[in-house]
Amino acid sequence: MSPGRLSFVYATLVVCLLPAELRAQATPAASLPTPHAQVTFRFERAGLPVPRFTLDVDERGSGTYKAEEASTAAPQQVERSIAITEATSKKIFVLVRGVQLTAESCASKAKNIADTGSKTLTYASPEGISSCTYNYTENKNVEALTTIFQGIAETLDQGRHLDFLRRFDRLGLDDAIAVLAQEVSDGRALELGAIAPSLHAIADDPEVMQRVRARAATLLAQIPTDSPSR
Q: Could you write out the DSSP letters of every residue in 69-103?
């Protein structure tokens, strides 16, 4: 018997001889749950207010958003945890599992395409890791994934902007929340639940004009009742 097999048998015997209350704490590593699959989207394009950001989302809908905001002084680093709806999470993983993330499948072969930013999609699971980088894609799954991740990032960026305006320029909220409402209507801003606290703060602020508060309340009403951030 090989040393590795012998070690496994020995570990299993030891676990079986333990009292029941301790057995669960000593389960062999081979039977532990596998890590959750994760999709990462990284974007980079110089000259934008947010020239680079990274979004990680796992199958549970939990994720992390990291960004660098352009500033006249020094770039501002942003990092926060996010939670997306089950519907969006499922859609992301159905799409990513329906395509091979390779240079051949992701990037367009068309010439003279405008620079829309460098995008990298990475899918990591217990079976392995695949990744591709592209500027523009003709792959429908990759295109849909790009739209989802950029839509989530846009919502988060707009949420930070609303927070800033509520603190320092309440009059500016009128135009800003109108822009957000239009982006939501057009499908360019997704997962409003991610900025629900910002919208609640505006809707409940008596020092904000009534029209803005009403728009914030309308946006809150569009968040699904099962949204993890509602």
A: E--SSSPEEEEEEEE--HHHHHHHHHHHTTS--SH
Query: pLDDT digits over 110-167, tens only?
Result: 888 899 999 999 999 999 999 999 999 999 999 999 999 999 999 999 999 999 999 9
Q: What are phi and psi of 50, to 5 degrees?
A: -125, 90
**What is the pTM for the complete model shown?**
0.83
Q: Which of 225, 165, 166, 159 is nearest to 196 (CA)?
A: 159
According to DSSP, residue 209 is labeled -
Q: Locate 75 and state its tokens.
A: 């770039």
Instruction: Give me the pLDDT at residue 230, please.
Output: 61
At 227, the pLDDT band (50, 70, 90 cuts) reads confident
Helix or strand run (H / E) with residue 194: none
Q: Which long-range contacts (CB under 8 A, 24 or more apart) does 20-28 make?
A: none
| CA–CA separation, 101 and 196 (whole Å) | 33
Q: Rounded to whole angstroms, how far apart are CA atoms 230 and 224?
A: 8
Of 137, 106, 109, which Cα lies nearest the Cα of 122?
106
